[in-house]
Amino acid sequence: MAELLLSALIPIVKEKSVDYVLQQFGAMWGIKDDLEKLRRTLLRIQSVLRDAEERQVKEQAVKSWLAVLKDAAYDADDILDEFNYEVLWSKAKIQDDIGNKVRDFFSLHNPFLFRLIMGKNLKDIVERIDRIAAEGDQFGFRSTAQPHTESRTQTHSHVDESRVVGRLEDKEKIVKLLLQQYEKENLTVLPIYGMGGLGKTTLAQLVYGDPRVKNHFQKLIWVCVSEEFNVEKLVKSIIDTATGTKCDLPNMDLLQHRLREELSGKRYLLVMDDVWNEDPVRWDEFKDLLGSSREGSTILVTTRSEQVSRILRTVPPYSLSFLSDDDSWTLFRQRAFTPGAGERPELIEIGEGIVKKCGGLPLAVKALGSLMRTKKEVKDWVDIMKSEIWDIEFGEQRILAVLKLSYNHLPPHLKQCFAFCSIFPKDYEMEKDMLIQLWIANGFIPSEGRKELEVLGEEIFDELVWRSFFQDLRQRAYNYKFDHGYQSAATCKMHDLMHDLATSIMGSECAPLLETGHLEALPDNIRHLFVSGPRQLDIGKTLNKFPTIFTLLLPHTYLDMRTADLSKARSLKVLSLEYTNSIELPVKIRYLKHLRHLDLSGTDIAELPEATSELFNLQVLKLDYCEKLCKLPEAMRNMRSLRHLYIHQCDSLKHMPAGMGQLSSLKTLTKYIVGDDDAERGIRELKGLNLGGHLELYNLEKVRGTEDASEANLGSKQNLQSLALCWGVGVWLTGYYSVEAEDHSFDEEAEKAQNVLAALEPPSGLKMLVVWRYAGLRFPVWMMDRLDLLRNLVEIHLGSCRRCEHLPPLWQLPDLKVLSLCKIDSIKHLQSSGREGTVQPFPSLKHLRLDRMRGLESWWGEEGGDPAPPCFPLLVQIEIRDCPNLTSMPVLPSLRELAIKGNNKIPLESVLSHTTLSCLDIETSGANTSSETRSPSFPQASISSLKHMNSLESLSITGSEELRPLLEREDETRGFSSTLQFLGLNKCNWLFSRQLPSSPLEIWTNLTSLRRLTIRNCDALLFWPEEELQGLISLKSLEVRECQNLTGTSSAPESPSSMERGLAPHLEFIGIIDCKNLMELPKLPASLKSLYIDNCPNMKALTDQLGHLPALKRLYIRKCSGLTSLPQWLRHLTALENLILIECTSLTSLPEGKQGFTTLRRLEIKDCPQLTTLPAARQQRLPSLQILVIKGCPDLERRCKRGGEYWDLVSLLPAPEIGEQSREQPPSFCSSPCLDCFSPV
């Protein structure tokens, strides 16, 4: 049963009642006496709250009294917020004289009317709370102090094997079992089962991190499953982990295709943590998606259910036992006693008794051990040992009681912060900074002197980690620019039992609504709600259903905003609409006066209403990735409570509002565009802001000089972690070959640029530094000579600094892992001075990008006189693009990924000498020419060979005819015949030209392990390459793009053997994109599951053979203007689940009839204006249809709406989308190959 937690709320309301500024205005408004009476009453209540909260468990009358008190406290909080808002409004009015504007937004704009109405409301609530306090006196509550916390010097953020107790023997047994599966052809499933809190996840983590396991398996993947066994989510999670990049594919067919690409042919370990699903059909469905795997592949499952372990297992499950008494005591001692402080004998004896009562459950032992460290008196230890919780029968209910005991001894604000986390689903990865901001927005963190609320929030977070309320801490990359993950955010999770505890405490006040849940089932008095998308949601009705809601998180939700303005919700403090379809703020500002946190990230919003500047309580505004956002509210300087403004990747934003320096509370400003200083838009606006985290400065050419730049006071901003200094407004980017609009490095005076950059000296402690489009002749002293200032740097990007002749001594930085140099034309060497002593250069560097460094001649200045080439000991990835004067490669013992692109003179021998490569991407300088006789891009070497590249998994070739002699030799390609999974061919006309004297068929002979092939921009490809591909027995995916001369038809007469030939026999996916002259599809294999046809306007009809594709699940056709109809046999594809038709402007009809389409689950028709019918008879219900989307088809939309011929079909669907505008997405399958897609994780 839910508990009522007021010990955190009452102090917050009391603190607001004594706010200094409110007291000052209170005297003027005649409410000072009421504020003082409220303070005294709340103080009296606060003194007895701990006793009341403890007694509510057994006394229903006390619980009812607390419920009444809590409602009144919330109302008092709202009223005090109204007064506080009026104070902020009055200050802003004095500052900017905005009173006339505000009258348009607020009904209580008249100061006299406000004081009259709100003064009465305050008096009423004070009397109400006073009566409630008097009623509480009858219970005879004891006055007791609340618990307090000790400061912590550190937390544990990962599984440290040296601190894991009692599970090393279990780990050895599991590892041995895994290694013994080597010879087994079928996929092995090994379950670990046991009750909650035993340490199943910890054991799986130990196994996962064991070096023997890492060496044995080619891929290691970890996914959390939890109670909702959602196959689509599972597949996405597996792909995310396997590729290291987020998967956004929209449907199951593409997902399973991508999943098989990643797993098939590899020996992998897949850990599925916390599985609950007992439905064998769903398990078999998931297992089938994994496809074929290499011998020894294993799924390691953790579960509480013995039934689950029996269903899933292919080998006997591993039953995890309880800890022994000795191991339990060792774990308890780690937590309960401060190292080095000694252990009091009287506490040891009691502690041993407590440990025995825990029954060998690690979670209970850790929780109580952490609790006992806060208890110094023998009496407190005895109370715990004699607690009535030990009377509960042993099992998970006793564990919950133990965890509840630990919870009861938390200070009130920690209780509230922990319990709030039940808003998230189980196994949800909570981002630390976001969580702290939500706590602050809801008022859960009490102020403590001058200490920043964020600092207090970090202390609370660390305390909850220490006490085992949070677990699984890790660092997660948060911005795609930082694609190597060195700039990241801390995240954590809650153990399922901890989540159960939090849910039991919050009850109906806080809930996550999962995809399978229904909004109508939630209670109306909910205060905090997380809705798991994607789903369609009427935001107006939602807010009206929950009029007292404080927190509403709606990520990735499709919002119906027709009733948004009818909202009655006036207490909203947190609103998150990230990655929804919002194009404007869906709730009027007048209803959002209490709002503290607003997240519109990833939406198409172009402009925030000017009234947004009247959100005087707003603390966090997130607008990351709002690519259409071009304007912020001009009066933003009035938002004095704003602490964090996130505007990452708002590329359309070209100027900032005036007076940003007046936002004195601002701690995060991710982007600032320098404007004219006279208009309060200059760089000196940053002077008084104590900024931290990430900061990007643009338009630095607007800075007048040294004095102006010094006014930014960057050196004092000690909390900055990353800094980008950019001339111009164009966003700095790495890894993109497109020429920037501002590619001229600004023809301003070099001396001015040098003075500005010199004056923008950052603080020490930076992790990342960017300098972009700098016009100076040299880098400043703080970059060239101040190693102490830069020694913590992990990531550096220098771009378009064309005039600089010398780089800073980057090779001396001990922690540098990522270095990107782009278009610094005057640089001749990476290091131009002699190496000092025996110091290893670039000791930590892992990723290096050299992009259009046209003056670069050598790696070291003295390389010509030093016979030993430089060595990069840890470098795993290097990309060299258009460096025409670089003629050698360094020693790279750890290299795994190599890309050589554009105009380069590095000998092919040097490229191919790196035999440990898993990924090779070669592009020639002549790739853009159509000449068959162009000169080679790679200098000819005496010996070039591929035969020793036996780890190669991905090979991308653009142009590169120099490789032809090697690829044609069977002995050269034999080395990677069993490893090569991906081949990308771009502008490789030499492979398909009919004018060459000899056939290149030998190239395909050894590619028996190839699973994915892309062919792009090959104008010599006239007909489908059936002869070339027929021997690729492992090929699953084929993509053909932008082959403008491909027609598909052959002018040669067909022989009986050629008619039977077709493409690769086991293809499952074919994508044909932007082939403008294509008229005919190839002969398709029966194994095909997905067919994509996009922008092929000359294709008039689908071939008859499509009717013989028993496995085809998904058919996608877009921008095929030549198509007028689809054939009748389409109805009888027995596996078809998804049919998507977009922008087929000539399409007039779909196949109709009384039977067929029995398996169709998703039907999308967009922008096909001549189409008037569905693929169903008027009285027929498509039996499997779940999703129907009809947009941009006027006649068909009319027939699908109420009263139309298809309404009976449409009305039965859960959430049809008929006629509404949508955010169109491009085709979501992977395009051209890249290093990131096919790198081993």
UniProtKB/TrEMBL annotation:
Residue ranges occupied by any Disease resistance protein winged helix domain in the UniProt entry: 423-502
InterPro entries: Apaf_helical (IPR042197), At4g27190-like_LRR (IPR057135), LRR_dom_sf (IPR032675), LRR_R13L1-DRL21 (IPR056789), NB-ARC (IPR002182), P-loop_NTPase (IPR027417), RX-like_CC (IPR038005), Rx_N (IPR041118)
Single Gene Ontology BP annotation: defense response to bacterium
Xref: SUPFAM superfamilies: L domain-like, P-loop containing nucleoside triphosphate hydrolases
Gene Ontology MF terms in the entry: ADP binding; ATP binding
Cited Pfam families: LRR_R13L1-DRL21, LRR_RPS2, NB-ARC, Rx_N, WHD_DRP
Domain NB-ARC: 170-337
Family statement drawn from the similarity comment of this UniProt entry: Belongs to the disease resistance NB-LRR family.
UniProt-recorded name of the protein: Disease resistance protein RGA4
Species annotation: Elaeis guineensis var. tenera
Lineage summary: Eukaryota, Viridiplantae, Streptophyta, Embryophyta, Tracheophyta
